[in-house]
Each structure stands twice: as structure tokens, then as C-alpha cells.
């Protein structure tokens, strides 16, 4: 079998991990699949830049690409565009964007990491498609490219042959998804283990954990309350109870909470419970009804309904795919 040919687009001021993260995943996967430390027989990785010129990442790392973007002919199995501050300058280079559009037509799948989605959007690759980028840039992507259906929450989004991923480390999850599709789930899991990646996160998983959201509140009462929610998901977390804890009316509490945290109290509680359920499914053998109880859902049917809505997969299927090898009852 011929190796999968992967073109990775680099430019000045890119985020280094957007490029080298997926490269390391694919390179490791090829070696794992071959059960050999010899050169990767499954993926042929080619870094391309405009003119083949050396590029400097935003962290100072200098990279010498393998070839010239303008001379690359394809066909490619995968075209992957990195992100970073330099994506803005790349988008303004109409000739460079035209090269992306040309190569996209000669690629089986086209992908971006982080703000690389702006480059794909500028090339028209994402027109009429669902896409995601770094959470802080989603609004700008939607505003600048109204023909793109921007989703603000997922780690990565697939729409046909296009893939877009969220910020930075989401590129690792995207690359692992490619490995699973190309070489099988077992190779993907062994690759994750080799790279000490805790788990291959599904694309529908949120960019934010509720633990991160709990740090967003500016006011101490709300900050303490969000921490309380995360730590006590099995308790009564109704709006009335939560408002009483911070001595606010329900209406005022809901307004202030949404303003500072970015979601409604009910949505935050639901996500916190999904996070707990997900961790239990990943790391333990606890039966589904007990997972539902521990996570505050009350019943297995409620857990299944909410879990499937958030992650696009049933709890049992999630456990089968993503439970860590050391998970214990």
C-alpha cells in the first residue's frame, strides 16, 4: 500500500504545535502500525511554504519546509493548514490563498488546525459547510465568512471531506481521528498511549470543560458557586437553589451568571454533569445507572438523552471507544 501523502502548510508566525503536533501523531502512528522504528511507511509528510522559504513560528522555532507551495502538484491524501497569528497575513496574500484552493481540489481530505480555518474559508473551501476554530476566533470567522456555518463548541468538525479543529491541542485529536480512519482504532489508541495522550477525545466534545468555565467569573460569589457546582453535581442545582446561595433573585442571578460565565446556569450545570459522567465512563467500570446517579442525572434514560445530545454518542458506546486501559470499577 502506498503511503498516505500529507501536505502541511506552514507560514511565518504560525503556532508551532499546530504543525508539529499533527506531524508527530501521524509519524508515530506510522511507526506503531509498522511495529518498527524505521522510517514511517504509512505517512509521507511534506511541509510546504510559499517559495519553500524557511518560516519562523511565533515561539521563535525556525522550520525548513520540504517544498514550495506554489510548485506542489498533488494528489494529496490530506492537506492540513496550520493556524497562528500569521494566518491573517496569509489570508491577505491572494496568490497564496489561490494555491490552497488549487491543492484542496487535489486532496482527498482538507483540514485546518485552529485559525487555519480562516485560510480555508478565504479559499472558499468551507463555503456552505460547518466549521470550528479557536473559541476566541469563532465570532470573527462567522462575521468574516457568512457562508460558513461556525460551531463554537466542538473540538473538531467534519463536513464531507473537510475537517476543522479548535485551538492548538485539538490538532492532536484531529490527527488521531485521521489515524483511526486510515489505520484502525487499535493503532490510534496505541499511538495515543505512545505519545502519553490520555485519551482520543471525540470531535463533538466541548472545547471547554466546566472546570475551566468555573474560573471565568469575576465576582467571588459566582466563582465560588461555579466551583461548588463542579464539585457537587449530584445535589439539587436548580436555579432557585443556586440563586439563594449567592443571595440574588432568580432573575438577577440568571442575568449575571450568563454575562460572566457565558452560558445559562442550567447549561453550566448540565455540562458539569456530562463532564463527570464522561470521566466515570473513561476511567471506571461503574454501571450506567450508577454513573447517572453520581453525575446528578437521576436515571439512565436521562443520562443517555443528555449525553448523546452533547457528545453525539450514547454512554455505552462512549465507554467502549474511550475507556482508558487502566479503568477500574
Please provide a written account of the structure.
With 329 residues, the protein is α/β, with parallel strands linked by helices. It has helices spanning 16-34, 87-92, 94-105, 116-122, 138-144, 170-183, 185-194, 210-213, 220-231, 239-245, 250-261, 265-283, 288-294, 300-311, 315-322; strands spanning 4-9, 43-49, 55-56, 62-63, 67-68, 76-81, 107-113, 130-131, 149-150, 156-159, 162-165. 47% of the residues lie in helices and 13% in strands. The strands form three sheets. Strands 5-2-1-6-7-11-10 form a seven-stranded mixed beta sheet, with helices on both faces. Strands 3-4 form a two-stranded antiparallel sheet. Helix 6 packs antiparallel against helix 7. It starts with a strand and ends in a 7-residue tail after the last helix. The mean pLDDT is 88.
List the topology elements.
Elements: E1 4-9, H1 16-34, E2 43-49, E3 55-56, E4 62-63, E5 67-68, E6 76-81, H2 87-92, H3 94-105, E7 107-113, H4 116-122, E8 130-131, H5 138-144, E9 149-150, E10 156-159, E11 162-165, H6 170-183, H7 185-194, H8 210-213, H9 220-231, H10 239-245, H11 250-261, H12 265-283, H13 288-294, H14 300-311, H15 315-322
Parallel strand pairs: 1-2, 1-6, 2-5, 6-7, 7-11, 8-9
Antiparallel strand pairs: 3-4, 10-11
Helix pairs in contact: 1-6, 1-7, 6-7, 10-11, 12-13, 12-14, 12-15
Count of the domains = 2
Strand order of the largest sheet: 5-2-1-6-7-11-10
Helical content class: 40-55%
Order of helices and strands: EHEEEEEHHEHEHEEEHHHHHHHHHH
End-to-end span in angstroms? 42 Å
Class by SSE composition: alpha/beta
**Mind telling me the C-alpha Rg?**
22 Å
CATH H-level homologous superfamily name of the largest domain: Class I glutamine amidotransferase (GATase) domain
Architecture per CATH nomenclature, i.e. the level-2 architecture of the largest domain: 3-Layer(aba) Sandwich
